[in-house]
Design a protein that fits this description.
The complex is a heterodimer of chains A (226) and B (348). Chain A is mostly helical and 226 residues long. Chain A contains twelve helices and no strands. In chain A, helix 3 (16-51) runs parallel beside helix 7 (98-123), helix 4 (60-74) packs across helix 7 (98-123) and helix 6 (86-93) packs across helix 7. With 348 residues, chain B is α/β, with parallel strands linked by helices. Classes of the chains: A mainly alpha (226), B alpha/beta (348).
Chain lengths: 226, 348
């Protein structure tokens, strides 16, 4: 087995600790920025939904502001976002390089996308259910937590899966600011030094990660659909 | 008592103002079943939503018992809403929750303990005849069962009023009947005031004590169901009455020259309409004996509203011309409306 791997992936096997390290870095980046983005994206998605015209806390001003900011951030290519956020990143995490330096731009790149995913998921709720909840005396907070978030779990999970997968893609780009991770590893060795097997190995690991996320997502959706 | 005082509700749509409810004054008595009937867009849903303020009136007051609900702050209003159950055409059950959890939903902040909630939900399930479905999800239920769950959920906080927004319009006739029967039963058992919105006469006939007829945001007729439908004044009310009766078919039959509606000499087609509580008398046999007439009933439509029959007959009457005239006179005195639809009598 060992020999087989050495034959197929000579360059990977010769720097195995570095390869593992980069997998670990990718997981850390996805984990941290994913968790932070999940919370902010969820909050923003809910805010969009309830302040929208006809929403339970309709507020044109707040909706317009959120809508514009999200559109603005979404229209900036991630590589440019990375570079333009350097000052802010330094302010928040103390450094603009390495894994910590990547988390802030990753969050900025993910939250707008994820909040749109949440908005779409919550928009699928039958307005009749909100009306029914209101008729039973539920207030806005109760409707958000007991109706929107409960009824839309499958949609939210689907959005989370898609976002997590696209986040893995972004972490590869974050390699550009020296964040490490699999993308950085593949570019440094596979591309710049033409060690093609490094690229393949990185791709295989990324495909595995994406598949695992997708499978978990599907299971959760299935469990919550009745 | 539910009281509307000069209630109006207008919407802005495409730059135009639509008066969905226009200056309505109405009193709905406690413990009765009230029907609100009208075509779509008549404003009946909006009017009924003004009772639990799912729609806030743009003008006027809504008073429930001693509470002017239109003046309540948001928090108090939510408490008040718990005393008003509502069911919908599309059932509006939470699909991620079981039947049990759906019915327990409104009990969450009621201060009840877990086992009290369990007892309450089980007794509600028994009330709507679904005790074996507690753990089912709504998607596993039929339309009628879903509506029963919705009714149980609406009754969870022991409301004094139940609003029903086209609750049987998505159901087949059989299921409609069973849901209507359940509503009637609940009204009798719990003394709950029920306000039913519908566009179907059948629903009104079957369970309502009172009826409110709406058109263009206004109430055009209201009162005791029998009174309103026995003597409809406005055209729209007449249309609703006709919608469940086949009596007006005679005009088409005559126009199409169908053999059954063709007359021999000395015959005429009469339409009798019972407008008071008179259908229980043997009027047809009486006039045929007394005035020596042959009465051939082409078709008839007599239904019970509450305890009283309402409807009429279309028949071909033959006999001596003056006898027919006298018979018509006799029936009119008995509060039967007689319309001569086609006359082939030989005049002397």
């Amino acid at each position: 087995m060992q020999e087989f791997l050495i034959r197929i992936f000579p360059n990977v096997m010769s720097k195995l600790p570095g390869f593992y390290e980069s997998i670990y870095e990718t997981i850390v980046m996805v984990g941290w920025s994913g968790s932070i983005s999940f919370i902010f994206g969820l909050i923003l998605g809910i805010c969009l939904t309830v302040t929208k015209k006809g929403g339970i806390l309709q507020n044109n001003v707040i909706f317009k502001i959120l809508d514009t900011v999200i559109n603005f951030l979404r229209s900036i290519p991630f590589v440019i976002l990375l570079a333009s956020l350097i000052t802010l990143t330094r302010l928040i995490s103390g450094t603009s390089i390495g894994v910590e330096g990547a988390i802030v731009p990753l969050v900025f790149g993910t939250v707008p996308f994820f909040s749109r995913q949440i908005e779409t998921a919550l928009a699928e709720l039958d307005p009749g259910l909100v009306e029914a909840a209101q008729s039973m005396g539920s207030g806005p907070m109760e409707i958000i937590f007991r109706v929107y978030l409960k009824e839309c779990i499958p949609g939210i999970v689907r959005g989370t899966t898609i976002t997590a997968i696209s986040l893995i893609g972004l972490t590869a780009m974050a390699g550009a600011v020296g964040a490490g991770g699999l993308g950085d590893f593949a570019i440094r060795f596979g591309y710049q030094r033409n060690q093609i097997d490094v690229t393949y190995a990185s791709v295989i690991v990324l495909v595995l990660m994406v598949s695992i996320i997708q499978i978990i997502g599907n299971i959760v959706v299935k469990k919550n659909s009745h | 008592m539910i009281i509307f005082e000069n209630v109006s509700k207008s919407f802005e749509a495409y730059g135009k103002t639509v008066e969905a409810v226009n200056d309505v004054n109405l009193r709905l008595e406690e413990g009765k079943i009230h029907g609100v009937i009208g075509f779509s867009g008549a404003g009946k849903s909006t009017l009924v939503r003004c009772i639990n303020l799912l729609e806030k009136p743009t003008a006027g007051k809504v008073i429930l018992g001693n509470t002017e609900i239109t003046s309540l702050p948001e928090k108090k209003l939510r408490e008040e809403r718990k005393k008003i159950g509502m069911i919908f055409q599309q059932f509006n059950l939470f699909s991620s929750r079981t039947v049990f959890q759906n019915i327990a939903y409104p009990l969450k902040h009621s201060g009840m303990k877990k086992n009290e909630i369990k007892d309450k939900v089980n007794s509600l399930l028994k009330l709507v005849d679904l005790h074996d479905k507690a753990e089912a999800y709504p998607s596993q239920l039929s339309g009628g069962q879903k509506q029963r769950v919705a009714i149980a959920r609406a009754l969870a906080n022991d409301p004094k009023i139940l609003l029903s927004d086209e609750s049987t319009s998505a159901l087949d006739p059989q299921t409609t009947k069973s849901i209507l029967r359940l509503l009637k039963e609940l009204n009798g058992k719990l003394g709950i005031t029920i306000v039913v919105i519908t566009h179907e006469m059948q629903v009104i006939k079957e369970i309502c004590d009172n009826v409110v007829v709406m058109e263009n945001g206004k109430i055009v007729e209201q009162g005791d169901v029998f009174q309103v439908f026995a003597n409809p004044v406005k055209q729209i009310t007449k249309d609703f009455v006709d919608s469940t009766s086949n009596l007006s078919m005679i005009h088409e039959l005559i126009k199409d020259r169908v053999p059954i509606a063709r007359l021999n000499e000395g015959e005429c087609i009469l339409k009798f309409t019972y407008i008071a509580h008179s259908a229980s008398e043997a009027l047809v046999s009486y006039i045929s004996r007394k005035y020596n007439l042959n009465v051939n009933i082409i078709f008839g439509n007599i239904e019970l509203i509450g305890e009283y029959p309402i409807g009429g007959l279309v028949s071909i009457v033959s006999g001596a011309s003056e006898d027919i005239t006298e018979a018509i006179e006799y029936l009119r005195n008995k509060d039967v409306e007689v319309e001569v639809i086609l006359d082939a009598r030989i005049s002397h």
